């Protein structure tokens, strides 16, 4: 993984990076903004098309298809089109299943806490293999988190499976189309993925001497605590902002987590201001809302590796504005979203203070193909 002093386009060329440092508040990096933002707008195309369908025809999915496409835009986003399609195809059914389990587990507080905690632990453990696999895990966890937070009846479990999977598959279809039409010359090295190396990494890190194993436990416990907190406090409508914040900021390294906590707070405030103003001013215009959502999605993809605070502002804008599509008043929910963000930051901060990594904790597998590059 290149250092901040040597910016490279996106994560790295072969998908072997194990971590990604967020940029300082008033700096850009590690990616160059031009290529990253162009790719962000490329990934937002299926989201925009699905929004035209859902908003223009007032479908029952009410933005669920577009959100499935948003969630599946992150897996493999640093890869050329063909390998990106492969990562997205592997993620698509998992996103649909996670959304279904999110609906089913949300029926009681204990099942919601247990389900998100377990899935979060699995996602956190994926860091032992590569950043790219970890992003798959985080995306699948995000799908469950969103479905849980909506507190839907069990009858919506099957629609959640259908909408989540179909929206995710739209990204796959788009990546394949881009590959056929434009991107055939940009395929990755053949050894970018190695199943034996991945399995070796997963086996060898099953010990508390591994930072990925400790992160998995810490991350899953923090997500579970986030769900338990909003259930206990009765924050039913917007409590999911607590685990959402935890999901976006916690990383296997304490310093990187602390850095993201600050950037997350600043970006959330900025996103809440932008999204609330847009929703209040243009809430009655499907065209404007569709454009805002598509642009917010594009910047979410494009800014993730460029400026983390601005990425947070973009993803916050998307979540708030899409909430207005299903009839949630934007202005009256600002205080609850802000409270949820503060509580999520606090839980992530305490998780590291209560159970830090001992000195010398490292990931234990030697993986030249899957994880040799580090930041």
Question: So what's the overall shape?
Answer: globular
List low-pLDDT spans. 1-10, 366-375
What is the string of SSEs from the N terminus onward?
HHHHHHHHHHHHHH
Rounded average pLDDT: 88
Tell me roughly what share of residues is in helical segments: 55-70%
Number of DSSP helical runs: 14
What is the percentage of strand-forming residues?
Answer: under 5%
Distance between the termini: 5 Å
Q: What structural category do the secondary elements indicate?
A: mainly alpha
Reported for the largest beta sheet, the result is: none
What is the β-strand count? 0
CA-atom Rg in angstroms: 19 Å
Question: How is this structure best described in words?
Answer:
The chain has 14 helices and no strands. The longest helix is centred in the C-terminal third of the chain and has 29 residues, at 254-282. It is globular, with a radius of gyration of 19 Å. The chain is mainly α. The model is unreliable at 1-10 and 366-375 (pLDDT under 50). 66% of the residues lie in helices and 0% in strands.
Fold blueprint:
Elements lengths: L32 H11 L1 H12 L7 H8 L9 H25 L3 H17 L5 H19 L7 H27 L11 H10 L6 H22 L8 H9 L4 H29 L3 H18 L4 H18 L8 H21 L21
Sum this structure up briefly.
With about 375 residues, the protein is mainly alpha-helical. Helix content is about 65%, strand content about 0%.
Features:
about 375 residues; single chain; mainly alpha
